[in-house]
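User: Okay, second chain of the day. Same drill as before: sequence in, structure tokens out.
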Amino acid sequence: MCDVLQIARSTFYYEAKETAEEDDVTEAVVDIFHKNRNAYGARKLKVKLQECAMVVSRRRIGRIMKEQGLVSTYTVAQYKPHKAACNEEATANTLNRDFNQTEAKRFFVSDLSYVKVQNRWHYLCVLVDLFNREIIGHSAGPHKDATLISRAFASVKGDTRQIQWFHTDQGSEFKNQRMDELLKTFDIGRSLNMKGCPYDNAVAEVSFKIIETEFVNQMAFESLRHLELELYDYVNWFNGHRIHGTLGYLTPVQYRVAASKKVV
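Assistant: Same drill. Structure tokens below.
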């Protein structure tokens, strides 16, 4: 029959089989993807595979993700140049968009975000260290006020007096007597956005975009306690397990530890 059809006998007996290596890579990609809250794209999956001694191209990872129906929830917020108006506050914009800090606890940035709990709006507050993008304080509650922010400061581990500057937008929850007293107690300097210019607090804005995409939009919260427990778990993953492109694909904790060894 092969002679009649003019094909080689080897073609007739050939059976296409997926190699074991392909199976191993696919299994690793799926495992890493799901263990990291479905947040990683091909770029970060490539880094995590290298940690497992697997050298895989981004194109191949992308193909595997498409075959397995893996779609990352991670979305990068993009910022366009914006000409800011003058800051009408007496408090200056000390940060001045210098987001690449080389010293831990020099500049903390913060913002608030909304989340539904049993069809009622609740709020999240996080404090982010610009040095390594680590969430060093967080809180959740039913009210958008200074109490929420004070509770985030209360969750900070270590000596709060080591914080040098606190930068936020000009929201009323950040600009009030209670916040002034808190910052004065710990001798923390104050820095504010220019009026109507969210780009002055871009890292906090991006951090909340990530939190909303990877955490808030992925869950249904039954109670405030449920939200607090899940937020605690997410922050632990964010700091200790989630790799960041801006940190050379290290986690915030890895980056901090590596920096401390260099100093020593």
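The mean pLDDT is 87.

User: Thanks, on to the next one.
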